[in-house]
């Protein structure tokens, strides 16, 4: 039960998921395969003066469409991550409730006080000056704990009884994949037999939306939200901001088999490569993207010809999709495997994207089906790839799937997901 480098094979025995299409793995997965979109008009805050007024929001149970709310991004991250972890742990059947026998790796966005908290402090201080707001915040331990970056992981670790110190990390759009990679490497080094890897993001709030809009990164196709996300398509005009979470229970294959667990698949390889070209753009030579893909294949001991499908990063921005297609051609040559982007249906879930898409890759292997890239109306002649346009595709013999995550700042992580070997 070792890989080609003599390391323990790392199995996935549980998956949990929250997306704009629903709470729970099977609800989201079936709606993805049906080509449904979870993109809609934003209702949780006013958008009248904003360039982009659509997103893939996830409503918490107490929220209603159009109602105002003071629920912050880190609170949303914690709520969605907790749901995804609970679902994954239940499927894995690993450990008693609140006593998980391994570590927690949490990928989440950077956090800071948001406008509702700032306005509340300004009112309490009677001033908009920063120094006065600091005085007004004195003694508000709840405010400190809510917006402490490591606090979410600490509370999740306490709830699920994970071992050791939880690790919280952020690597832009590659964050969810980084959390998985970090957990995999801990198991491969023999530091733990099991781990929970989760990526979660709840950043659909005014300031984050405005910042991405100022970068000209967001689609402004507000008149038809469900048709706005158009990865790899000629008329694409940016990504659609979204939120969600996914968790994987990972353990050594030997440990999973010893306890009779059902194995969903393997995380067979992880590849990363960074560049320092620009804060948001990829280096036009594509070296980091190409290198990350090749590193994942090499780490897994899998040849390019053996990859049957790629779950693409596919954001729908003009440059990113072009660079991903360039990387695909460089690695796979004239016969690349099919690639599709589930961001066409759920938008870009940012810190959660790498985890959600790794989960979808495993489900593709499990069910032998490729989710579609919807809204593919007019092919881009510069992207000559099979993007599984508009309709899912049933396949057979699918054993290896590549999941790409390319983040701002040149932070790139690719995961190679594989079918489990015969027992």
From TrEMBL:
Pathway: Lipid metabolism; fatty acid biosynthesis
Transmembrane segments: none
Keyword Transmembrane: no
Domain Ketosynthase family 3 (KS3): 7-419
PROSITE patterns from the UniProt entry: KS3_2 (PS52004)
Alphabetical keyword list: Transferase
Keyword Transferase in annotation: yes
Protein family per UniProt: Belongs to the thiolase-like superfamily. Beta-ketoacyl-ACP synthases family.
Protein name, UniProt field: Beta-ketoacyl-ACP synthase
Lineage, uppermost ranks: Bacteria, Pseudomonadati, Pseudomonadota, Alphaproteobacteria, Acetobacterales
């Amino acid at each position: 039960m070792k890989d080609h480098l003599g390391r323990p094979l790392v199995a996935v025995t549980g998956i949990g998921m929250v997306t704009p299409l629903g709470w729970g793995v099977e609800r989201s997965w079936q709606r993805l395969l049906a080509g449904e979109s979870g993109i809609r008009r934003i209702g949780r805050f006013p958008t009248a003066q904003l360039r982009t007024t659509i997103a893939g929001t996830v409503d918490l149970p107490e929220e209603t469409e159009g109602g105002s709310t003071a629920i912050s991004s880190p609170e949303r991250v914690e709520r969605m991550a907790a749901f995804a972890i609970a679902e994954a742990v239940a499927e894995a059947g690993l450990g008693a409730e609140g006593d998980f026998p391994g570590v927690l790796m949490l990928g989440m966005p950077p956090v800071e006080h948001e406008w509702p908290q700032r306005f509340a402090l300004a009112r309490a201080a009677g001033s908009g000056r920063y120094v006065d707001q600091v005085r007004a915040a004195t003694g508000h331990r709840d405010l400190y704990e809510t917006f402490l970056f490591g606090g979410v992981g600490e509370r999740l670790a306490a709830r699920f009884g994970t071992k050791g110190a939880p690790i919280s990390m952020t690597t832009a759009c590659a964050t969810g994949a980084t959390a998985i990679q970090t957990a995999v490497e801990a198991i491969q080094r023999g530091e733990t037999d099991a781990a929970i890897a989760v990526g979660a993001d709840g950043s659909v709030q005014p300031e984050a939306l405005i910042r991405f809009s100022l970068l000209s990164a967001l689609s402004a196709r507000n008149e038809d939200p469900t048709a706005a996300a158009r990865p790899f398509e000629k008329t694409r005009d940016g990504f659609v901001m979204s939120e969600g979470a996914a968790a994987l229970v990972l353990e050594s294959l030997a440990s999973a088999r010893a306890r009779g667990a059902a194995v969903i698949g393997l995380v067979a390889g992880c590849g990363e490569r960074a560049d320092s070209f620009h804060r948001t753009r990829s280096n036009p030579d594509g070296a980091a993207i190409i290198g990350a893909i090749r590193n994942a294949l090499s780490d897994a001991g899998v040849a390019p010809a053996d990859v049957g499908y790629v779950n693409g990063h596919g954001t729908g921005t003009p440059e990113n999709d072009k660079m991903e297609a360039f990387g695909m051609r460089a690695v796979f040559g004239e016969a690349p495997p099919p690639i599709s982007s589930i961001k066409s249906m759920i938008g870009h879930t940012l810190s959660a994207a790498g985890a959600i898409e790794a989960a979808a890759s495993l489900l593709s292997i499990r069910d032998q089906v490729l989710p579609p890239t919807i809204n593919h109306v007019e092919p881009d002649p510069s992207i000559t790839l099979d993007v599984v346009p508009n309709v899912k595709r049933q396949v057979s013999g699918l054993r290896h799937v590549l999941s790409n995550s390319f983040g701002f700042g040149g932070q790139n992580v690719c995961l190679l997901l594989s079918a489990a070997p015969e027992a």
